[in-house]
């Protein structure tokens, strides 16, 4: 309920683990390996600081590309500022990281927090953990004792906890108070976009090189925006108690207004100008709407028939 008090300055999204996820293995704990548990509630969670860092890394990769490792040369030394600049070069180049710093802020004594607060991801169901074991086969070699690993060392099984595939977490994003409403909405869209990119492509936590830590947006037949849900609840509260089930209605001639595949968001505009938001994956899974045709249908203003119940889109059909 508190989230809807922010109106369009906040939104929530639900993500589901595609692969196992482990966090804070090096945390101090009575066990051999640690895990990320909330210090007050004792539940596993996705730290907001880690989510923000992952989104920042995804945006940096999107703008600057994947960092390339190459041998030092004169050109790389020049790029690093280790040699004098040529006279014909401009003294100052635009900083390609400016949009990254504007959205996510910058550290240091003179740094700032950025435009969006990333709150911790909280599990939606109990029982989201499972036990895992890893067994280093050359513990002495890893500690630098023998010069060469061999098969006479004793593997030591190390049990630890991990978030199991299919576990769902809700994450809230809140625009900071010094932004106007339009800037806040734009910042939230960008933050969500790059967070989902990072969760889907880069992974959160440890062992990401082994495929751990990947998440996907959870398809839902409810409005993806927490603002839309909050407004619907507020409207229901002002119209008095609900005496029966939500009214079902059919909307003919709706067209695609916009869509965002990364954020799993599809927005239809009805002939009367009202907008309806639904999950792209929900449309594909339930009604066979091919995401590959969305851009063509939006450009051609292809009419759709929507089945709506209350504030939820429950059916999407192409004429």
Gyration radius, rounded:
24 Å
Tertiary shape: globular
* C-alpha termini separation: 38 Å
Write down how many β-strands occur, each being a DSSP E stretch of 2 or more residues. 12
Question: What summary fits the major beta sheet?
Answer: 5 strands, antiparallel
Mean pLDDT: 79
Oligomer: single chain
Helix/strand structural class? alpha+beta
Low-confidence stretches: 221-245
How many helices in DSSP terms?
Answer: 8
Integer count of domains: 2
Residue fraction in strands: 15-25%
Return the string of H and E elements. EHHHEEEHEEHEHEEEHHEE
Helical content stands at: 25-40%
Written account of the structure:
The structure is a single chain. By secondary structure, the protein is an alpha+beta fold. It has 2 domains: 3-68 and 91-217, no CATH class; 226-318, OB fold (Dihydrolipoamide Acetyltransferase, E2P) (Beta Barrel). The protein is built from 8 helices and 12 strands. The chain has helices at 48-64, 74-79, 98-104, 139-142, 181-201, 226-238, 280-287, 294-300; strands at 10-17, 116-118, 122-123, 129-134, 158-163, 168-175, 215-217, 248-260, 265-269, 275-278, 304-309, 312-318. The strands form 3 sheets. Strands 1, 2, 3, 6 and 7 form a 5-stranded antiparallel sheet that branches. The protein has a 5-stranded antiparallel sheet with strand order 10-9-8-11-12. A two-stranded antiparallel sheet has the order 4-5. A hairpin with a 4-residue loop joins strand 8 and strand 9 (265-269). Helix 1 (48-64) packs across helix 5.
């Amino acid at each position: 309920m508190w989230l809807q008090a922010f109106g369009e300055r906040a939104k929530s999204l639900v993500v589901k683990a595609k692969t196992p996820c482990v966090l804070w293995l090096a945390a101090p704990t009575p066990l051999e390996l640690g895990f990320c548990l909330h210090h007050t509630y004792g539940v596993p969670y996705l730290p907001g600081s880690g989510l923000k860092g992952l989104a920042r890394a995804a945006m940096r990769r999107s703008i600057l590309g994947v960092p390339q490792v190459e041998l030092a040369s004169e050109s790389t030394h020049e790029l690093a500022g280790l040699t004098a600049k040529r006279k014909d070069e401009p003294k100052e180049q635009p900083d390609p990281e400016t949009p990254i710093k504007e959205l996510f802020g910058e550290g240091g004594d003179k740094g700032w927090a950025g435009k969006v607060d990333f709150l911790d991801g909280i599990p939606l169901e109990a029982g989201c953990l499972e036990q895992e074991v890893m067994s280093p086969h050359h513990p002495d070699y890893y500690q630098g004792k023998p010069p060469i690993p061999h098969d006479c060392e004793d593997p030591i099984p190390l049990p630890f906890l991990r978030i199991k595939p299919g576990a769902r977490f809700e994450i809230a994003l809140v625009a900071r108070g010094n932004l106007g409403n339009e800037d806040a909405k734009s910042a939230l869209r960008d933050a969500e976009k790059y967070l989902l990119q990072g969760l889907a492509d880069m992974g959160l936590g440890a062992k990401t090189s082994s495929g751990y830590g990947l998440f996907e947006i959870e398809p839902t037949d409810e409005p993806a925006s927490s603002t839309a849900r909050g407004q619907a609840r507020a409207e229901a509260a002002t119209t008095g108690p609900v005496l029966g089930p939500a009214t079902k209605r059919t909307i003919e001639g709706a067209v695609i207004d916009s869509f965002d595949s990364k954020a799993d968001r599809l927005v239809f505009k009805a002939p009367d100008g009202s907008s309806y938001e639904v999950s792209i994956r929900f449309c594909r899974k339930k009604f066979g709407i091919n995401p590959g045709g969305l851009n063509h249908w939006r450009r051609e203003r292809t009419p759709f028939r929507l089945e709506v119940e209350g504030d939820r889109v429950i059916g999407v059909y192409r004429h």
